[in-house]
Design goal:
The structure holds three protein chains of three kinds. Chain B is built from twelve helices and six strands. A six-stranded parallel β-sheet of chain B has the order 3-2-1-4-5-6, with helices on both faces. Chain C has a domain of 80 residues. The chains are: A mainly alpha, B alpha/beta, C mainly alpha.
Chain lengths: 208, 272, 202
């Protein structure tokens, strides 16, 4: 608890007080954070190894894929360490042509699921759902040239109406409220942590 | 109608994919109307004083290239046409800068830019928001080397920018696809130092960034592939983004029709 | 049609096709692609951290500059691994305390300047339709999120209802934008397949 409060006070002191800036405490604290965090990131590595090693030992369903996972993980690690560089030719090639391609393809699959959901699941059961779907259709057609081809000039055309009134006013107001809520909530939680009212992160019983 | 409602989802996937692939080969050629939002971002960059120095931060990975690459290319063209000096670099988005190096060299080479004097590529630096903060105190200590691991201090342009501050940097142009991104640049650089921020974001992020444009914290916002297409047209270099707008039109129509058809079926079956 | 001879493009195309097999049904090819991605991503971040933080810290700061206090930072990070030793798992709380405290300090020090500007941007003169709509929208949506005030009160309930409409509009906009973005990702993949790999000119 003391460590939590001390580290947060050092950050605030460094940002808002002249002495804090003079002593350059932020630089040391930033470096401490980066180093300790970087070392601890190996935890993910260790965790995955432990879980999948148990899968392999007990021959649980999908244990073959656990072998593939561990081989890929440690193989890529060895490539990076062998080239002794994060930007080595083989390491970079694998990232650009395999990892990035897989990542983009996986994220793009959501498009199909959304479209299927639009046909099979999105129903105008309530007034709220109707508003949601109508706005979605207006925005989609407004953000594509087809909207302006259909509705050219009144209220600035489809895209003009969408950009100025829907995105720029109504949507913006709601998103501002959501953003403010998130910021204020984060601020309140940070204050509670600093005052010792919130101890879940150190295994406490939660809030006081 | 009931059979239509119970159609296999894989048929829907096939129809959708086929329509999208078709637009690759059969363009519709619909005109792209330019919005006030993109025009504002273009003007914010265009109206910087002559001889300005801008920091361009392409904060994205290969997955977002489809939408943000056209913005980056158009941005380089606009800044080069105006004769701005450029610092190009990012933090945490490691491969972004490697991918973009050939693009930067090609475009700025055509305008006669000299590396180290008119522009410099800082590479990708680790640290995210911590790096941003360090750069507002001392850029050379924060970066140490350029993208090619050459010590920064040897380049003449760096002597003009000891740190990221309003007296040295006239604008920061950020291309954002996640965290760390435009919000971090706003929180840790633009707000404390007062450097104007112009942002380009992916389509999905446009709603969450519009409040910052409205409040004036962003001086301009380019939104998604439509924004990229509009920006390309404003700069006078129509490219990939403009070409992709036909596909966006087909997608928008397709999903709209799916929603309408699905609900017609639902309402008819409810009546029965 | 002119098939690419670049092994990188072939690798990208085969990865994309392997992932899209999931759209037909769950199958070993998709699971293989998914597993490879997970393995590569985990190793990638560790290598990134190793060369960008740990190696410079040891070589430059500790050995070259003699700032030996950073060894304590390394030990602090290593303490998280005590969670695997039941009798000593309490030691893992120390690095967590430091990180949470550090993050807390950042939130308290830097965030207020950003969201206070958002607040002041809401309280504008109510002399245009836009300003009125924004003012009503922000306040009503905030009231909607106040779960500790009873919505049975007609005033609070009415304002929250207006907020709910605004939020529905925002969710609809978010959906519309997400659809376009995701399909744009798919379009980029099809560009890789048809243009870069199969060599069609479009």
């Amino acid at each position: 608890m003391i460590l939590t409060v001390l580290s947060s006070l050092v950050v605030i002191f460094s940002q808002y007080f002249y002495l804090g800036k003079q002593w350059n405490l932020m630089e040391y604290l930033n470096n401490w954070f980066q180093i300790s965090y970087a070392v601890a990131l190996a935890l993910g590595f260790v965790n995955l190894t432990v879980i999948h090693w148990k899968n392999i030992q007990r021959k649980r369903e999908g244990w073959v894929f656990s072998i593939i996972l561990l081989l890929t993980m440690y193989g890529y690690l060895i490539v990076g360490l062998a080239e002794w560089s994060f930007e080595g030719p083989i390491f970079g090639w694998i990232y650009e042509n395999i990892m990035a391609a897989l990542s983009a393809a996986i994220f793009s699959m959501v498009a199909f699921f959304i479209t299927s959901a639009a046909y099979r699941a999105f129903r105008v059961r309530t007034k709220e759902a109707t508003i949601l779907l109508v706005c979605a259709v207006l925005v989609m057609l407004g953000r594509a040239p087809i909207g302006d081809a259909i509705w050219k000039s009144w209220l600035g055309g489809w895209s003009g109406f969408v950009n100025q009134w829907m995105m720029g006013t109504l949507n913006m107001a709601a998103m501002r409220a959501i953003t403010l809520g998130a910021y204020v909530g984060g601020f309140a939680t940070a204050l509670r942590i600093m005052l010792g009212l919130e101890r879940a992160h150190i295994g406490g019983t939660g809030t006081q | 109608m009931e059979r239509l409602m119970k159609i296999d989802r894989r048929i829907i996937y096939l129809i959708a994919a086929a329509l999208v692939i078709l637009t690759l080969f059969v363009p519709l050629g619909l005109p792209v109307k330019i919005s006030d939002m993109t025009r504002g971002a273009y003007s914010a960059i265009e109206n910087l004083p002559d001889g300005s120095l801008v920091f361009i931060a392409p904060m994205y990975d290969p997955g977002a290239r489809g939408e943000l690459d056209p913005m980056f290319v158009a941005m380089l063209h606009q800044c080069a046409k105006r004769g701005y000096k450029m610092l190009i670099g990012n933090t945490s988005w490691t491969l972004g800068v490697q991918m973009l190096h050939p693009i930067v060299t090609d475009i700025l080479g055509d305008y006669g830019y000299t590396y180290g004097e008119d522009y410099i590529e800082l590479g990708s630096k680790p640290g995210g928001s911590i790096w941003m903060q360090q750069a507002t105190n001392d850029l050379v200590t924060a970066c140490i080397t350029d993208y090619n691991n050459q010590p920064l201090a040897q380049f003449p342009i760096i002597s003009q920018v000891p740190k990221l501050a309003a007296e040295y940097v006239d604008a920061i142009l950020v291309l954002d696809c996640g965290t760390p991104g435009a919000r971090e640049w706003l929180t840790y650089v633009s707000t404390p130092t007062g450097i104007p921020l112009v942002v380009g974001v992916i389509q999905m992020s446009v709603p969450e960034h519009t409040p910052f444009l409205d409040s004036g914290q962003y001086k301009g916002l380019i939104g998604g592939s439509r924004g990229a297409a509009e920006y390309e047209l404003l700069v006078g270099k129509p490219g990939k983004a403009v070409k992709s707008q036909d596909t966006m039109s087909v997608i928008a129509l397709m999903v709209t029709l799916f929603i309408i058809l699905g609900n017609i079926g639902y309402l008819t079956s409810r009546k029965k | 049609m002119h098939l690419s001879t670049n092994p990188g493009i072939w690798a990208q195309a085969l990865c994309i096709l392997a992932v899209y097999t999931y759209l037909y049904k769950d199958n070993p090819v998709w699971r293989f692609a998914e597993t490879v991605y997970l393995g590569l991503a985990t190793a990638y971040w560790f290598v990134y951290m190793f060369f960008n933080y740990i190696t410079p810290a040891i070589q430059e700061w500790i050995i070259k500059d003699g700032q030996w206090h950073y060894i304590i930072a390394i030990l602090l990070g290593l303490m998280i691994f005590f969670r695997y030793v039941p009798s000593l798992s309490w030691l893992a709380r120390y690095p967590m305390s430091f990180w949470v405290g550090y993050g807390t300090g950042y939130v308290l020090a830097f965030d207020p300047a950003v969201w206070l500007t958002q607040v002041s941007a809401t309280f504008l003169p109510l002399n245009t339709v836009k300003n009125v709509l924004v003012f009503i929208g922000v306040l009503s949506a905030l009231v909607y999120f106040l779960f500790t005030i009873a919505k049975e009160n007609p005033v609070v309930g009415g304002v929250a209802e207006v907020g709910k409409w605004y939020i529905m509009i925002a969710l609809g906009s978010a959906f519309g934008n997400t659809v376009l973005y995701r399909w744009n990702l798919f379009l980029s993949r099809m560009n890789t397949i048809f243009v870069q790999w199969l060599g069609f000119s479009v």
